From TrEMBL:
The lineage of its organism: Bacteria, Pseudomonadati, Bacteroidota, Bacteroidia, Bacteroidales. It comes from the Bacteria. This is CBM6 domain-containing protein. The chain holds residues 222 to 542 of 887 of the full protein. Belongs to the glycosyl hydrolase 43 family. It comes from Muribaculum intestinale.
Amino acid sequence: PREWTYVSNPMFTELTSPMFGVGFTSPLYTADPSAHVWNIDGKEVLYLYASHDMSPAQGCDHMDRYHIFSTEDMINWTDHGEVMNAATSNRYTGTVNNYGEEYMWAPDCNYNPSDGLYYFIYPHRIRMNGEPVWQHFLATSENPAGPWKCIGYIDGIPSTIDPCLFVDDDGQAYVFTSGQGGCWMTKLKRDNWLEMEGESVMLLGPDGDVASGFPSFHEGPWVFKKDGRYYLVYADGYTTVNRMQYSVADNIAGPYTPKGVFMNPMGCNTTHGSVVEFKGKWYTFYHTADFSGHGALRSVCYDEQTFDDEGNLNLLRNFGE
Ligand code: FUB
C-alpha cells in the first residue's frame, strides 16, 4: 500500500469558490512545492511555497491563489492562510478578474541579502493586448510568509511557467522557468530583481536528456547546490505521466550532465518538486493525487532524500506507475 507523508491533508479550509459558492469547505489541496529553509530568530524553519488546487472540473485552469506553510520539525505544519490571489495581483495589473484566463501556477520564494526582503515569485497568466501571456510577478515582504506587496513582473522573460528563484552563494539571483521548448535561465540585476541582466537562455531542450532514453525536460525546474555542484531537478515528459529527473553542472549556466530518473510517477500525471536540506537531512517534496483520486486536486508530501557516495540522488521509494 502507498503511504504518503502529507503536508497539508487532511487539513480542511473554508474557501469561496466560484463553483461552489461562499463558505464551501474542502480539503486544502496543494501542489508544486518549493521548500526553503530560513533562519528565523535563531531557529531553522522550513517554509513551503505551493500551488493551490481548487476545482476538479476546471483543473489547473482555475488556480488563482496561494497558501504558505512552515514547520520546525517536519511534523507540525502551520498554514499561514491565503497569502496572495489573482484579485490582489489584478489590482497591480489593472486587468479584469476572469477565471479561466488568469491562472496562478507554481510559485517560489527567496531572500534577497542586498535589501533584506523576501521575494515571492509567481507565474500569472494575464491578458496583454488581448493575448494570454505568462508573466513572472514578484511580491516582497519582510517576512517569509508575507504580507506580500506585488511590485510588478520581470519584463522580458519568455512566456513560461514554474519559476524557481535561485540565489547563489555570492548573492546573485537567477530565475529558472519552463516552456517554449525547454528550461530557461534568466539572470537578474543585483540591485533590482525586477530587471534582467542580459537575455534569458535555454539550458535544456525537450530532447536534451538523451542519456535516459526517454523524452526529458518537461517542466518544474528546481535548482539547488550541494558540495559546489548545481543540481537541476525537473519533470520529464514520460508517456502521459511525469517522472522526476535531474542534471548536474559545475557552473550555473551549464553544461548540465543528465543523471536520469530519481523519482518515478507518484500517483499523479504531473510531478513537480523541490529538494532541500533541513536540520542535517535532505528531503524531496512533491505531490500526489491519491488523497482525492483526482489529478487536479493534488496534495503535497515529502520523503527523505539520500545521496550515494558520488553525490547522485538515490531513487526515491518506487511505487511504480
Ligand atoms: O500546478 C499547475 C502546473 O501543473 C504546474 O505549473 C506544473 O508544474 C504542473 O505541476
